[in-house]
UniProtKB/TrEMBL annotation:
A Pfam family hit: Peptidase_M20
Domain Peptidase M20 dimerisation residues, every copy: 200-322
Keywords, in A-Z order: Hydrolase, Metal-binding, Zinc
Recorded coiled-coil stretches: none
Matches recorded under InterPro entries: ArgE/DapE_CS (IPR001261), Bact_exopeptidase_dim_dom (IPR036264), Peptidase_M20 (IPR002933), Peptidase_M20_dimer (IPR011650), Peptidase_M20A (IPR050072)
Protein name listed in UniProt: M20/M25/M40 family metallo-hydrolase
Source organism: Prauserella halophila
First and last residue of the signal peptide: none
CDD domains: M20_yscS_like
Domain of life from the UniProt record: Bacteria
Cofactor: Zn(2+)
Species classification: Bacteria, Bacillati, Actinomycetota, Actinomycetes, Pseudonocardiales
Amino acid sequence: MTDNLIEAAADEAVTLTSELIRIDTTNTGDPDTVVGERAAAEYVAEKLTEVGYEVSYVESGGTNRHNVVARLPGADPSRGALLVHGHLDVVPADPAEWSVHPFSGAVQDGYVWGRGAVDMKDMVGMTLALARHYKREGIVPPRDMIFAFLADEEAGGKYGAQWLVSNRPELFEGATEAISEVGGFSITLKDDVRAYLVETAQRGIRWMTLRVRGTAGHGSMIHRDNAVTKLSEAVAKLGNHRFPLVVSDSVREFLDGVTEITGWEFPDDDLEGSVAKLGNISRMIGATLRDTANPTMLTAGYKANVIPSVAEASVDCRILPGRLEAFDRELDDLLGPDVEREWMELPPVETTFDGAIVDAMSAAVTAEDPGSRTLPYMLSAGTDAKAFQRLGIRNFGFAPLQLPADLDFSALFHGVDERVPVDALKFGTRVLDRFFRSA
Ligand SMILES: [Zn+2]
């Protein structure tokens, strides 16, 4: 293959990313308001069938929640398949806050602008460009590849990855490893030396409802069993609680790697202080040193002079791998038996940073950015990897982008003026091409 062809694929990745952003796929979490996922899935399906793919076009348990899955046979069918997945939905954006319209897909000043530019129509664009390139040129990867373009990630994947894994697992048959968001982006550690962070772990998610019952009554009386008072005490306790510092394997490996590159130390007695010196990325890394439990919603009462019998609060809990039982015990002690707890839970994700697939990622990155290195890290949030883990698949966040040193990348996720450098998209397409051909 000539360099010209891969440059053409990289150019196409930019165009596809921009066109995908123009399809408003806002996911508010309310299924009735979802409009664009179907149009985006049709767009992707057409781009794939146009070059000869047979696609599975699957409506996943709700109206207009469409997903597209396609396979590219590899040279060695006895090897496990590589799954490359990306979600087509985005979080809402208010045009009044943006310098360009969030659904313009504008390509200007060296960036592609718009909601989804980094989360994650960039990766979808790069993947789609390479899938088309391989089919057009008859390029056979070493093993089967499965390309999946999914609905509803931003609301937990109930109408996307989770639904497909529960109802259509055969679409992913044979897949042993997967890549997707949020990883593969560079951070500049010194001068011109970059580290590319490959996501190998995610905290678990628990969206918890706290419920306290009391005795209803008149607001003018002496009243000792007030649900609002008891709930408020519980919420304040939990919101102010600090869970213990735990350095997971992936975090330790990340910090050790940074020390090797920069000489910076991360002493146990000042871990959080030293992590804060990492700059923009410290917000993400810092959030993976402890479990967190942030109260987010309160519900109680219906009139100022009526004491309600029930009060409820929502708490967003994020739990480190291996910490679930300890977390529960801590909540037992903190809240006591009178506070009822209910929750929706998605498990943590964790794999090791080793093996042929990691070697292939690292080699692909350093071939395009000599002198750089890859490091594992833990994502403080969650992705569709949580669904694919249920199939026994090893999950990595690897959507490679070489970023300018001064770009606050993590702030772009769900942020105003979300954008991705054109050069980063082209770089990422070249890295993914090397990776897909050697993984
Ligand atoms: Zn995302």
